[in-house]
Amino acid sequence: MKTVLNNKLIANKDGVALLLSIWVLAMLIGVATAFSYTSRLEVQSGYNIKMAAKARYLAEAGINMAILQILNKKNTVTADAATNQVESEEDWLFNGEFNELNFDDGQFIVKVVPENSRVDLNFADEVILDRLLDAIGVPEGADRSTIVDSIMDWKDEDNLHKLNGAEEDYYMSLPTPYKPADSYFTSIEELLLVKGVTQEIFYGTGEKKGLKDLVTVYSSSFVIDFNSAPKEVLMAIPGIEEEDADKILEFRKTNEIQNVNDVQLLIPAHFMAIRRYVGTGIKAATVFSIESIGRVKDFKTEVGIRAAVEITNEYSFLFYKTPEVIKYNDMKEEYE
Fold first, then answer.
1. Nearest residue to 266 (alpha-carbon basis) of 246, 237, 283, 280
2. Which carries the bigger pLDDT value, residue 300 or residue 123?
3. How would you classify the pairing of strands 224-225 and 278-279?
4. At what angle do helices 142-155 and 126-135 cross, to 10 degrees?
5. Looking at residue 41, what is its pLDDT?
6. Which long-range contacts (CB under 8 A, 24 or more apart) does 234-237 make?
């Protein structure tokens, strides 16, 4: 009898030992699985950081290449015309089209636009602002008048608002109050603080451009570069109707507008009204907007940089932002 009990105790101990062993083994398996998962995450995270850094450096290379191209273009334009130098296929476009350069493991995509191809908020009058809003589809009426008058009020120094405008009393009555600048715009993003300017009007929609792509604070002039101005900006100029803007855009496909005489030949009927706004050529431009996107081949990471650069014999950055979301619908296809 005593032998039987001893055998049962031994059997029970063996069972407990087996259970403990299984429990310890399960814990070890769990720890090993967690460690393996964490290791994979860290490896993937490190890889993602590496690819993001590579994309950022590609975007920065695009900015630097754009500056070099602008300097080269300026030097070419100022060279003796008697040389009859012909542009090579490597010459970049400065009319809002994207330029790209591919590498074995990535590419950068860059758009360069002279800032004088846009409407300068600080030099635009009510007529140009109203026509620009009309060109992007803001309907005529109280809303459009409110935006125009409020922009003019924002940049004037007094505290007297125009008929449909707004001054300090309006802005200080908002749920989150703030004061208007009563001075020149220092960035186009300030427009989002102006009465009547909505996100849709500023950023645009899939069908319509927004003010973000059509205005500037850097050209310091009301003169517009007719070689690179988008259709909406051309239509903002008093005297230019949609059919006139279309003629200019069609001419630009195969030619460069050299001087005001080219514009006169294109739209003689309205030339006297628009002459004071006509600017031509990269030579006169000193500030450029550069948008650069770095992409890593076979990877989903992209990094965008948006900058405004003042370029004469040297260059300096007036604005630099990264990361930045940049639209480039025509360039979305994967490259080989």
1. 246
2. 123
3. parallel
4. 140
5. 75
6. 235/131, 235/132, 235/134, 235/135, 236/119, 236/128, 236/129, 236/131, 236/132, 236/135, 237/128, 237/131, 237/274, 237/277
- 216-230 pLDDT tens trace: 999 999 999 999 999
Q: What is the pLDDT of residues 3-17, one digit of tens each?
A: 544 555 455 555 667
Residue range 301-321, pLDDT digits in tens:
889 999 999 998 889 999 999
175 upstream amide cis, omega within 30 of 0: no
Q: Rounded to whole angstroms, how far apart are CA atoms 149 and 145?
A: 6
Amino acid at 224: I
Token pair 């050299």 is at which residue?
258
Q: Are 65 and 108 in contact (CB under 8 A)?
A: yes
Higher pLDDT, 44 or 331: 44
Of 123, 118, 122, 150, which is closest to residue 136 (Cα–Cα)? Answer: 118
* Separation of alpha carbons 193 and 172, rounded Å: 12
> Strand locations in the chain, DSSP E?
98-102, 106-114, 119-120, 215-216, 224-225, 278-279, 287-296, 302-311, 315-321
3-class DSSP state of 296 = strand
Q: Are strands 315-321 and 215-216 parallel, antiparallel or unpaired?
A: unpaired
Contacts of 245 (CB under 8 A, 6+ apart): 231, 234, 235
Instruction: Give the Å distances, CA to CA, from 118 to 160, 224, 227, 232.
Output: 28, 7, 11, 9
Residue that the structure tokens 């140009």 belong to: 128
129 or 88, which is more confident: 129
Q: What is the pLDDT of residues 56-96, one digit of tens each?
A: 999 999 999 999 999 888 777 554 444 434 344 467 878 77
